[in-house]
Specification:
Length: 244
Amino acid sequence: MKNSYFIEIRLDESESIRNGYDFIYSEENLSQLDSFYIWFYNKIGKPKMGKILDIACGHAEFLNICTENSKEVNCYGCDISQKALENAKNNHTKVTFITSTAEALPYKNNYFDIVTNIGSLEHFGSLDIAINEMKRVTKDNGKIYILVPNTFSLLTNIWNVVRFGQIAIDIQPLQRYGTYRDWENLITRNGLSISKSYKYERPFPKTGSDFLYFLQRPKEIIRLLLGLLIPKNLSWCFLFECQK
């Protein structure tokens, strides 16, 4: 059996994960730069039609890019946080939203052409159940895209250990890190095959606001350029393209 050895961090076990995310979304913004979602959209082939599900969609920035670029896509978003979806519904009227955990998706078998999970799998209660749910709702010829963080990311975790003596910890209730092989083993032992994989470090700016963001942060520009030299196994995150 292929084993995976994840680093797991639990910040607060006294409250439910749903309540934790509702609080986070009422106080914080977990969104990435617009250029990240554009990068992701390009990596998955700029889908122009079919049904797309984004699990743990948050404020639905990625789905918004999908609907802006094609009238033929039908986009769906689910998230454990009602607070996140309230904001998403106000801003993205062309997307169908529902409150749901990743381990019990309220969709039919073989329903979606594309299922995405963008930096959220590591926060779910059960990794195996969540992956099997992704597999269940995806069509036999569909694609699943999973973005996950690296234990040994050179410019994030390793640099954090050098500076502070610990890996990077964010504000989410449950967090995991794995190596490339850890994530690969997890995905394949749950019945998915990996057709492609990519490294992710930082997105080059593709919008005016993101260009300004980097101009105001010289250290981020340095990190952006260093990211070009970093091998996949030491990158910040991995993007896996999977199928049944």
